[in-house]
């Protein structure tokens, strides 16, 4: 078999560990969005169930705020989430929280996925495509084309208008070879840098991130309206 064919075979047969980040403050929602009801089930449970049902997911590490650790563990028990093997306390920043989670995954993990706890509409196809590309190239993230015109601003003044054909909205789960992500996050924490996504930390090391298949339905629950949109999407899926 050719080297490329061997890489492809290994990528297809790869399993992964997952870090679900649920340690945010939910400031824009005004209450803890992860425990809000979404069509009869808490947002966080809907997120975890997707990974729990994926055959290629080996384990899930759940990162939460200290005051929510017991609640999160109880939700996993109550809803029969089997693959959450560790519930750990996050750090002061997202970068610190992800690093804490990645440090706790199985040492033999070949790929680690990092997913927002507030993205409950992710699908197995999105997860698999990100994992597959990371197994081939080292780092990947789902994305969708930007459809709105984006303006770069300085306060309320437009500075420039980027060409939207070269822009993409990046989602999670973002997928990495564990050593790459650990090195990037460690460098960020030691340097006092905070990134809004984990790809940015990896990019700062000079590692190229490949884009995988995202979905307009893979929304992040941030504001009350997002819950209504998510509920509509679930109903359209007959869930």
Summarize the structure.
By secondary structure, this protein is an alpha/beta fold. 36% of the residues lie in helices and 21% in strands.
Account of the protein in words:
There is one protein chain. With 239 residues, the protein is an alpha/beta fold. 36% of the residues lie in helices and 21% in strands. It is built from eight helices and ten strands. It has helices at residues 3-12, 43-52, 69-78, 94-103, 124-137, 178-190, 198-204, 224-236; strands at 16-22, 57-64, 84-89, 112-116, 139-145, 152-154, 157-160, 168-170, 174-176, 210-213. Strands 1, 2, 3, 4, 5, 8, 9 and 10 form an eight-stranded mixed β-sheet that branches. Helix 4 crosses helix 6 (178-190) and helix 6 (178-190) crosses helix 7. The model has no long low-confidence stretch (mean pLDDT 92).
What distinguishing features does this structure have?
single chain, 239 residues, alpha/beta, Spore Coat Polysaccharide Biosynthesis Protein SpsA, Chain A, 8-stranded mixed β-sheet, two-stranded antiparallel sheet, 10 strands, 36% helix
């Amino acid at each position: 078999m050719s080297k490329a064919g061997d890489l492809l075979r290994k990528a297809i047969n790869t399993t992964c560990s997952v870090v679900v980040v649920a340690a945010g403050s939910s400031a824009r929602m005004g209450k803890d969005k992860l425990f809000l009801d979404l069509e009869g089930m808490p947002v966080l449970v809907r997120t975890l169930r997707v990974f729990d049902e994926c055959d290629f997911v080996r384990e899930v590490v759940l990162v939460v705020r200290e005051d929510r650790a017991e609640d999160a563990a109880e939700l996993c028990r109550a809803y029969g989430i089997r693959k959450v093997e560790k519930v750990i306390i996050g750090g002061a920043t997202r970068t610190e929280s992800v690093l804490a989670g990645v440090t706790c995954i199985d040492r033999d993990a070949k790929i680690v996925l990092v997913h927002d706890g507030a993205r409950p509409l992710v699908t197995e196809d999105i997860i698999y495509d990100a994992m597959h590309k990371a197994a081939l190239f080292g780092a990947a993230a789902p994305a969708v084309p930007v459809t709105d015109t984006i303006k770069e601003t300085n306060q309320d003044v437009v500075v420039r208008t980027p060409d939207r054909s070269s822009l993409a909205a990046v989602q999670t789960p973002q997928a990495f070879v564990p050593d790459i992500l650990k090195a990037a996050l460690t460098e960020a924490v030691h340097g006092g840098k905070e990134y809004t996504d984990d790809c940015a930390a990896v990019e700062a090391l000079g590692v190229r991130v490949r884009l995988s298949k995202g979905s307009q339905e893979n929304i992040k629950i941030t504001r009350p309206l997002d819950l209504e949109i998510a509920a509509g999407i679930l109903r359209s899926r007959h869930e």
